[in-house]
Amino acid sequence: MKTVSPKKRTLISADDEAAVTDIRIAPDGRVFVFGTSRPVLEMLSDLGWGDQAVTARIQALQQTAAETTQQESAT
Amino acid sequence: MRLPNFEEPGQWHLAHCQLCEHRCLANRSAGERGPCQALTEARVFRQRVEWGEESELIPSHLFYLSGCDLRCAFCIAEANAFDPLRGTVLTADFLRQVIPKGRAQGAKNIQWVGGEPTIHIPSILSAMAGIDDLPPVVWKSDFYGTPEAFELLDGVVSVFVPDFKFGNDECAQRIAGVSRYFEVVTRNLRLAAQQADVIVRHLLLPEHWDCCFVPICEWLLREMPTVKLSLRDGYLPMWQARQHADLSQLLKPGIGDRAREWATQLGLNVIR
Q: Following DSSP, what letter does each residue of B229-257 receive, concatenated?
């Protein structure tokens, strides 16, 4: 799986505590992630997360990153 | 039904509220409170750009509004959802400050969630009316609103995300405290489909495969066979869920994949 370079990670200010992503781990090891921010998604990507739901969102992230790069190049 | 010609859309409901199917007629402007407890102001208890929504919606700038017309025992937002006095008052100025920040993080839409946004339609419309270059609007709702409420949203919403929670009235009454649930939600699904794109969301509940998941899928197959269906398997026994034996447990491992496979084989358009 292609991962996002840490150098390109989005830096967001923690000006709103309510924006914290909530991660809960069930006794059987299942991990529940609520309110996924971009940096958290990037972290999951770096971990090589195998879940299909996460993979689909990482692909969307990579697409958005590519579009942003194109827009920056155009300007 | 045509609404009286008030200055701003939906304001009439603040004096005789019929935004949801409780139809409590509360004069919210005069301080009366219906089942949702909301007065005239909407409040945002959380706003952020999220990447956990359906792939075609992300990144999405979510606005969580406090106050709700339902009382789902398993509500993950817990007290924030049910106390409409929590959060920052929603105004056009507030939106003007935060929408550019969301856009800078790549957000391609704004999404109203709750609690329940339907009970705050007048405030939301008023705030959005003050925004130039408004992003596309996603409306995530319990779909217990009235046709009058949906009429106010016609032409405003780009994507509806109805949270189709229960497949029968008994489960809805016992777990969320509402009557006529199935009739109301299915009527509203038909209304919404005439207005905008629709992504039906269903959170799988433990021990509700036969009574809720299957009837919902069968109704969709019969009435809206091409609609997008998003099956969520992140159930946790939050808030008052432990008062119900069935809701006190986690889903069995693999049930989400099994549900998606079953719905796909049935012929539904399952998305992630």
A: EEEE------TTGGGSTGGGSPPPTTHHH
Domain B41-271 bears CATH identifier 3.20.20.70 = yes
Contact call for A41 and B253, based on CB within 8 A: no
Residue A63 scores a pLDDT above 90: no
Tell me how crowded residue B210 is: count the other CB atoms within 10 A of its CB: 9
Shortest distance between the Cα of A71 and any Cα of chain B, in A, equals 12
Instruction: Report the relative pairing of strands B88-89 and B43-50 from DSSP bridges.
Output: antiparallel
Q: Is the ipTM reported for this complex over the cut 0.85?
A: no
In chain A, whose CA is at the least distance from the CA of B46?
A18
Q: Helix, strand or coil for residue B110?
A: strand
Which sign does the torsion angle of CA B52, B56, B62, B67 carry? negative
Pair type for strands B110-113 and B60-65: parallel
- The answer to pTM > 0.80 is yes
CB atoms within 10 A of CB B226: 10
Q: How far apart are CA B228 and CA B57, in angstroms?
A: 12
B254 in contact with chain A, both atoms CB, cutoff 8 A: no
B51 touches A at CB < 8 Å: yes
- Which residue has tokens 């034996």? B245
